Amino acid sequence: MSLRERLTRGRLLALFLTFLFAFAVLPELVVRLMGAWGPGMGEALATFRSFAPLLAALAVQGPILNQPVMEPFGLTIRPERSVLLAWSAPLLALVIGVLFAVLVWDLPLILTEDALVAAKRAHLEGEALERFEASLRRGEFTSPLSLVTMGMTGGVVLNFIPALAEEVGFRGFLFRELPGGFWARSLAIGVIWGIFFAPTAYLISLFPGHELEGAALLFAFCVIVSPALTYLRIVTRSTIAVAIARAGFAALTKVGADLTLGLPPTLSPPFGVAGLVGAAGLVALLFLLDRRGEGPRVFEAKAPKRA
Questions:
Q1: Potential cystine with 172: which of 25, 73, 121, 262 (Cβ 3.0-4.6 Å)?
Q2: How many independent structural domains does the chain possess?
Q3: In this structure, is residue 131 part of a structural domain?
């Protein structure tokens, strides 16, 4: 009996997870053993980690199963309205998160350049304030709308490749192989993704001084937003579209901090507490959209949908 014939679904998943975490840990282990840790190394390692799901999926799909990867992993995309929905999903979550922060923590709603300038002057001090004033004099400061526009265009492009590398593994391989209905698969993928992604909070100092809390928040974000990303995976039939949405969340990190000035990173969107509310709100919006649409209900799917 060949190796392919002996691999049950459980063994296949175990093999993928073994590859996934081995590829994720190996770069940092090598760096630390060589004593090469230095400035910027955390960001570099976070980027290397992003390719671990892709490498794990290819290792199982190619040499072991000897199967194609394009269609099974959703590495195709069609110009449809659902792709536009995937692109705009992070912005919808950001809006919900910012409004939640404004209502709960009594923050001013920052909609204009003057309001953003005044808020930054009130919350920055020392060298940070001096750099901000210098950027104002050079004309480099932009309005909240410009920040959002830059995040949803150039920011998405910059963050797209690492996001796609992860999605090939999570909503490519795992989406295809995990058993169960929509919610079971979505939450299982979210948990695995969260365990994998949580160390990124430490590597890129996403929550300075709150690394442990930040890792917990990042894990929670992965679990909460996973049904929304799985929904987008199904309606677009594309991990590329999901990667666009993932890249948007990363690109809006600074925008979320600017629009909720005064809040620590652990509270501000898209990954702090307000961001978790935004992610939950996005899932709720997509659930309502699914209920109002024609055809089978994605959120009510009982059996696995093969890509």
A1: 73
A2: 1
A3: yes
